[in-house]
Write a structure and sequence with these properties.
Blueprint: H1 15-33, E1 39-40, H2 53-60, E2 65-66, E3 87-91, E4 94-98, E5 103-106, E6 109-112, H3 116-121, H4 124-136, H5 161-168, H6 174-182
Parallel strand pairs: 1-2, 2-4
Antiparallel strand pairs: 3-4, 5-6
């Protein structure tokens, strides 16, 4: 796949394009890192009810686990019917381990926490409370942080004011929030 296509959402891909991108990106990452790539995360968590077919392709192309399901009802993404705890999902090509992103239940609502911009933009106390809630309920936490979100010195580039705000707001707080969350319990890489 061309580099220009490498950030397309699964919702924008045909199954053939998804198969090519999953295979090509895995090969590229393995060549660059010198290590086997077994996990996948879709751009903007775009594996949901209408794109569950992508899990079949991930199994077919050699991935052993996925962490693309965000079990929330969101404006651009979300899979509210998806699993809320790590599980194995059946596909037509075999099973794949799914590590859904963490959520915090508040009454009937399931709120996104501990992933990407939510980890950065929400007050640290909410992230810490979510971590404690998961530990109390004996539910594994999935924390997702982008390395760029730990670098307040990165150059500012953005197509619009809104994108710039959501991309750069509170970027200096990410490391402190992450440290506070990591003190709640033990963590390991998936």
């Amino acid at each position: 796949a061309s580099h220009a296509n490498s950030h397309r959402m699964i919702t924008e891909l045909t199954p053939a394009e998804m198969r090519q991108e999953a295979s090509d990106s895995r090969s590229l990452l393995e060549d660059l890192s010198g290590t086997r790539v077994e996990g996948y995360r879709a751009p903007s968590y775009t594996i949901g009810a209408s794109t569950r077919w992508a899990l079949d392709i991930l199994v077919e192309t050699g991935y052993r686990y996925d962490s693309s399901v965000f079990p929330i009802r969101g404006r651009r993404y979300g899979y509210p019917e998806g699993p809320v705890v790590p599980t194995r999902l059946a596909t037509s090509a075999g099973e794949i381990a799914e590590f859904p992103l963490s959520t915090l239940s508040v009454g009937p609502l399931r709120l996104p926490v501990l992933a990407g911009s939510y980890l950065r933009l929400l007050p640290a106390w909410i992230s810490v409370a979510a971590a404690h809630d998961h530990v109390r309920r004996n539910i594994p936490l999935v924390v997702n942080v982008h390395t760029w979100e730990t670098d307040p010195e990165q150059p500012t580039v953005g197509p619009s004011r809104r994108a710039a705000w959501t991309h750069y707001a509170r970027i200096g707080s990410t490391v402190n929030t992450l440290k506070r969350v990591m003190r709640v319990t033990g963590f390991a890489s998936i």
